[in-house]
Design brief:
The protein contains 19 helices and 15 strands. By secondary structure, the protein is an alpha/beta fold. The strands form two sheets. Strands 3-2-1-4-5-6-7-8 form an eight-stranded mixed β-sheet, sandwiched between helices. Strand 13, helix 18 and strand 14 form a beta-alpha-beta unit. Bound molecules: uridine-5'-diphosphate-xylopyranose. The site of uridine-5'-diphosphate-xylopyranose (UDX) has 20 residues, from helix 9.
Length: 463
């Protein structure tokens, strides 16, 4: 199929490159000349595993092209997929960009072509879509076209795999009187071995939202459970493992730690709370999900204080990981940034390292007073405490015994529960995690021990 993908941000570029690999003829459209220039040279403006290879392959086979000519690309496509941004950057929606794109695309499209919206849209705007598209077609005397929603469920860091091997494909019918739009989307996805679920447009939009809200709820549940585990001396990882054999529960998205960040989960929880209130719906569960998630970040600061005898003032903190999760360079709503600000506010000097160079560059501007260094050993040297915030493999595989030798005090908060506490305690660390208690060093090493009172309060009082 000849496909135009409009908007070459995260969602659009992944969509275009994956469709080109499936041998569709893809034209990626974007107004940003610099972005187009880089893409034509095969340079992807953000980190996503396998995406640069797919873009390069698409360019070399001629299946993937880039242009700023929106009308031209729309006119020659069997399908136009709109993937422009709809966040206002302030926790709310903006629909100006998508409205503007539709105004240009729709009159140019050929009769028989299908318009597909992949951007996440507010339900109110979806209700207006059929009339908006019909009036633009009528204004140029063109026949009506099918309009479909096709929400995305891709995760950063696994986006190519999630696109090409999805758990399900959701199609929402905005307007498709003769089924042509649905048939076109089925053809588009013929290489994907996944169930295709067809539903109304608002149902599709809320399916997407509901999936993210449920994932966020699972994480906050795991984090609250972790506090209960800390208070009673249980191990949350063992408890979740025991729960996960129940097919009604499953084990995914129940990892306790510093909580969820990124561009989707936090934003969609807060946006839903706000939008639901506007239509008179109270959302106490989502409010709690949000609260539990944000409390986690201040709890890390409080825990660092408790482990350092009541204050972080004047202490050197090594912060390991800045991105909101591994395998991305995305810093949007990254827990590390809030934790760093909280520690700096309390007088700590925070030295951070992340394996992703672009994340290192940007985070120094985002957090005033944050020192960013080019290696984990630079961060750890002379630190009074290390806090692992993002579970990059490099931190999991670190020689912690050697790292401990370089620290001023061997104190570690494992914010993702990925290290083995017993090994760290054997290396002289006071090891604190979320929902797995706090372990004190096996052998007392110089300056390695937190005060017994602080440790006791963490073990039995939560924290
Ligand atoms: C999410 C959804 O997973 C995806 O389906 C949707 O299309 C976009 O939003 P993403 O934002 O890329 O994807 O990240 P995700 O893998 O969901 O992780 C979000 C956050 O939750 C990360 O900060 C991660 O560290 C955290 N998380 C995840 C946990 O704290 N515990 C878990 O068990 C899982």
């Amino acid at each position: 199929m000849r496909v135009a993908v409009v908007g070459l941000g995260y969602v659009g570029l992944v969509t275009g490159a994956c469709l080109a690999e499936w041998e569709h003829e893809v034209t990626g459209v974007d107004a940003d000349a610099r972005r187009l220039g880089s893409l034509r040279e095969g340079r992807v403006p953000f980190h996503e595993p396998r995406l640069p290879e797919l873009v390069a392959d698409g360019i070399s086979t001629g299946k993937l092209q880039f242009t700023d000519d929106l009308r031209g690309a729309s006119a020659s496509a069997d399908m136009v997929i709109v993937a422009v941004g709809t966040h206002d950057g302030n926790g709310g929606w903006q629909t100006d960009t998508v409205r503007g794109a539709i105004a240009d695309i729709v009159p140019a499209m050929g009769d028989g072509a299908t318009l597909v919206i992949r951007s996440t849209l507010p339900p109110d705007f979806i209700r207006q879509l059929p009339a908006l598209v019909a009036s633009r077609r009528a204004a140029v005397g063109a026949a009506s076209i099918p309009v479909m929603l096709n929400p995305e469920f891709t995760r950063e860091g696994r986006a190519v795999r999630d696109y090409q091997q999805p758990d399900r494909i959701v199609l929402g019918i905005v307007s498709d009187p003769d089924g042509h739009g649905e048939a076109a989307l089925r053809e588009l996805y013929h290489s994907a071995a996944a169930p295709i679920v067809v539903m109304g447009a608002i149902d599709a939009a809320i399916t997407k939202l509901g999936a993210n809200l449920f994932l966020a709820t699972k994480i906050s549940f795991a984090n609250e459970l972790a506090e209960i585990c800390d208070a009673f001396g249980a191990d949350v990882a063992t408890v979740v493992d025991g729960m996960s054999y129940d097919s009604r529960i499953g084990g995914g998205f129940l990892k306790a730690g510093v909580g969820f960040g990124g561009s989707c989960l936090p934003n969609q929880v807060s946006m839903t709370i706000r939008t639901a209130a506007q239509v008179g719906v109270d959302t106490p569960l989502l409010t709690a999900v949000d609260e539990v998630n944000h409390r986690r970040r201040s709890q890390v600061v409080e825990r660092a204080k408790a482990l350092l005898d009541g204050t972080v003032r004047g202490r050197r903190v090594a912060l390991l990981g800045l991105t909101f999760k591994p395998d991305t360079d995305d810093l949007r709503d990254a827990p590390a940034l809030t934790i760093a600000s909280g520690l700096i506010e309390q007088g700590a000097s925070v030295v951070a390292y992340d394996p992703m160079p672009t994340a290192r560059e940007r985070s120094a501007d985002l957090v005033p007073g944050l020192e960013v260094v080019p290696s984990s050993s630079d961060a750890i040297r002379g630190a009074d405490i290390a806090i692992l915030v993002t579970e990059w493999p490099e931190f999991v595989e670190l020689d912690w015994a050697a790292a401990g030798q370089a620290m001023n005090r061997r104190v570690l908060i494992d914010g993702r529960n990925v290290l083995t506490g017993e090994q760290l305690a054997a290396a002289g660390f006071t090891y604190s995690s979320f929902g797995r208690g706090t372990l004190v060093p096996d052998a007392v090493a110089d300056g390695a021990v937190a005060s017994p009172a602080a440790v006791a309060s963490l073990q039995w009082g939560g924290g």
